[in-house]
Amino acid sequence: MKQLVRVALLDSDSDVRFGRKMIISSNPKFEIVFESDGLSEDLVAVADGLIDVLVINQRLASGAGVSFYQSLRSLVGIKQATACVLTSAFDQPTLLLAALEEGVSQVVSLEQGPEALMNAIAAAKTGDQALSLGELYSLVLAETPSRELNQDLLRLVGDLPQKLESNLRRLQSVWKKGDAAELENFELKSLTGLVDKLPVKTASELVIRLQRSGLLDGE
User: Which Gene3D superfamilies does the record cross-reference, listed alphabetically (predicted)?
Assistant: First the structure.
């Protein structure tokens, strides 16, 4: 018998949370094991709980959902933090970029509907990427250019073994060329070794943080 995907649901709006609980519970593969309005005290319960996927709304009792997940990562470690799906009232490219940069697997807006939420939970559990490299490229370049040198990341990149360094060079080459077809066809799964080695949770987070540190475009 397959193990159910254990889901924690955090949302400050009890009515919305109840609705999402009904949607998620309607899938026989999912089980709600924890729910709350997202108080700061819930961090410990989430960290200690047997949870496969967090579904966190951007509006929590303690503040922004992305900030809650940041705090969880600080508490338990980047790699140990539970996979997370962020929900929001509507599509916000700025929020999507900020969430992906913090290791969130996917952002689902209310208007995308129940099926999108179900798919996002399943993808978060398996580690599938929400966006292609082409979509990440467009998302990053649409924002105001920003640099944030991550000295730890720079040091670790400098110490990469040859095989992983080769993977990084291929990513850099595709990114610099900016060819739409090459970007779209690039397999983010090929970055798994880099994700495992570097202080990031997902391939999307890796790409964004490399770009922020100037390691993709060489500027």
Answer: 3.40.50.2300
